[in-house]
């Protein structure tokens, strides 16, 4: 199966995709998909980039690697398809937003409508073997996602980068924040451990993000859209 990549991103990353490591990555990952169960589905590997073209990006939320349980990963960090039970990390985000998780009608875990507003929901590693976290980290996806961040930093301004956890925060070195060029917001990863330690320390990121966007004349993000009924 060909991995379809949105035109604007293909143009920005064309040199990266000619690099030997990337060609080797594609070969190895395709072999994995042929012989093992891997996630997300192959046609969703570049879902984050395909839903959020280069010039539309307002916010980047960095994840780690895709969910490794059946039916969860959909190529968007922290997101699961409509109707799938919310994973703990996404519940943490929803609690921070004040979205009710105790009612009869549960919010959708599908963050596509965030992506469509300009939120790039990008994992550091874009594929994973079933039940084996970080199993595709060795294929150097990190270099490819580094290139994504570098391109945004170089050619765009006033993007908010939300870096949650040690792995995501490694991208900070590629982001310039001098003179307000971009904003970087950092917190611990919203993992299940957060619930044991208390309130997640990234709770204010959503408000800070919209304040920054508004100050620069950029339309803000409706973070609460996931709590609404999805149209059929």
UniProtKB/TrEMBL annotation:
It comes from Prevotella melaninogenica. InterPro entries: UDG_fam1 (IPR002043), Ura-DNA_Glyclase_AS (IPR018085), Uracil-DNA_glycosylase-like (IPR005122), Uracil-DNA_glycosylase-like_sf (IPR036895). It comes from the Bacteria. Its EC number is 3.2.2.27. Residues 50-213 form the Uracil-DNA glycosylase-like domain. GO terms for cellular component: cytoplasm. Excises uracil residues from the DNA which can arise as a result of misincorporation of dUMP residues by DNA polymerase or due to deamination of cytosine. It is an enzyme of class 3 (hydrolase). It is found in: Cytoplasm. The active site is at 65 (proton acceptor). Keywords: Cytoplasm, DNA damage, DNA repair, Hydrolase. This is Uracil-DNA glycosylase. It catalyses: Hydrolyzes single-stranded DNA or mismatched double-stranded DNA and polynucleotides, releasing free uracil. The gene is ung2_2.
């Amino acid at each position: 199966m060909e991995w379809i990549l949105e035109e604007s991103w293909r143009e920005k990353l064309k040199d990266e995709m000619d690099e030997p490591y990337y060609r080797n990555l594609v070969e190895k990952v395709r072999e994995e998909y042929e012989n093992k169960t891997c996630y997300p589905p192959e046609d969703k590997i570049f879902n984050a980039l395909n839903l959020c073209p280069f010039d539309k990006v307002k916010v980047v939320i960095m994840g780690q690697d895709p969910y490794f349980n059946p039916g969860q990963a959909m190529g968007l960090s922290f997101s699961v398809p409509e109707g799938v039970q919310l994973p703990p990390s996404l519940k943490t985000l929803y609690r921070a937003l004040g979205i009710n998780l105790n009612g009869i009608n549960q919010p959708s875990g599908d963050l596509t409508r965030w992506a469509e507003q300009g939120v790039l929901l990008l994992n550091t590693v874009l594929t994973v073997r079933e039940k084996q976290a970080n199993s595709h980290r060795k294929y150097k996806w990190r270099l490819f996602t580094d290139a994504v961040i570098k391109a945004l930093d170089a050619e765009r301004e006033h993007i908010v980068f939300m870096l949650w956890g040690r792995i995501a925060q490694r991208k900070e070195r590629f982001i310039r924040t001098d003179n307000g060029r971009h904003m970087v917001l950092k917190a611990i990863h919203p993992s299940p451990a957060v619930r044991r330690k208390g309130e997640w320390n990234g709770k204010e990121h959503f408000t800070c993000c919209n304040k920054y966007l508004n100050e620069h004349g950029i339309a803000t993000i409706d973070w609460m859209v996931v709590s609404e009924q999805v149209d059929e």
